[in-house]
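[SOLVED] Predicted holo structure with pyridoxal-5'-phosphate

Edit: marking solved, answer below. Original request kept for reference. I posted the sequence and ligand SMILES and asked for the 3D complex as structure tokens.
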Amino acid sequence: MSVSLLAQNLHGSEIIKIAGEINELKRQGQNIANLTIGDFDSNIYPIPDQLKKGIIEAYGDNHTNYPPADGMLNLRESVSAFLKSRYELDYAPNHILVSGGSRPLIYSIYKAIVDPGDRVIFPTPSWNNNHYCDLTCAEAIIVETRAEHNFMPTADEIRPHIKGAALLALCSPLNPTGTMFSKKDLEEICDLVIAENKTRKAGEKPLYILYDQIYSQLTFGHHEHFNPVSLRPELKDVVIFVDGASKCFASTGVRVGWGFGPAHVINHMKAIVGHIGAWAPKAEQVAMAKFLKNDVDVDSYLTKLKGNIQNSLTTLYDGFQQLKSEGFNVDAIEPMGAIYLTVKVDYSGKTTPDGKVLKTATDINFYLIKEAKVAFVPFSAFGTGEDVNWFRVSVGASTLQDIVALIPRIKGALGKLK
Ligand SMILES: Cc1ncc(COP(=O)(O)O)c(C=O)c1O
């Protein structure tokens, strides 16, 4: 039976396909370390206690009806204060939109800005921009990034595509790489957007920036998070931020996201989120409003979460560096933020013990799943070519002990390749 062209052409998640393979092996009794999902195991990383209590209390108080379309005012006030204290950003509650996690914000930004056929520029690897382009019938303009530049895009790479584009979608710290913009690189991109917008006539749609900083509270060591508006305040009218609780409070299932930006865009996003009914549940909003105000609890939760995630990432990074120093064809980029490590496993063209030649990153991944009992996600799931032998490793669903144990298994599996 025929369905819409859009439905026919929409691709499912590549990561879910890998999950299917892992589940099949698990059904056969195998124990696979699943480092594929951009999520947390809630038994290893539970949500903040005070947030959990607040949600239960809010249900006890019968906060179970529709929330306001743009989110509870007290939550938007808490977010406003959070943005001021954590980023020095000034956004009043009417410049903030709450939704059921941050995905509806991204969709509504695309819908509020992009007309069918408009050009949307985004780097690869990156998370889901291809799907949002499909959903809005946008022309996807893909900027391929380089390992030598931590897979972050540069102004020089974006420049050839910028004339007349409608949206530039950026993310830092980046899913899938766990790397971040340097101040200089982001400044150069901001200046490019400012210069492009100066060439547009009054009344013409400007080039907007979607700035996804959902991992910005999860940064490590000396790595500092930068945003376009703090660096170039004149961009405030064209930058729409995506943010929320999913990652920094390990609350992916709680579904509270917040976006902020110019009121003329936020108001349209509010109408779109309202029509699809993608609000955050009211009780969760009530609890999040209270939790965000409590700096002591927020800080102690973040310190612990960041410490544990950084420990896992660094252990894995050191393990890969050790394998590299032993002559294995692997590499890793220093972890900077988020819950991801970028690793290279460059074994295409090699033959497995049962005589199969590994041709693509997907082949290498499935070999590691079967032989080392560990699953990563090839960057091809984030829009790169199949010849790119780099992978995302997510540590949110594994204990440190699991991570320590998998390095020898990887070493054993790679050692069997000819
Ligand atoms: C960069 C980025 N933005 C947004 C999201 C979506 O978050 P949420 O679960 O709040 O919808 C994710 C989830 O993986 C992400 O990695």
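OP edit: Residues 295-325 form the longest helix (31 residues). Thanks to everyone who chimed in.
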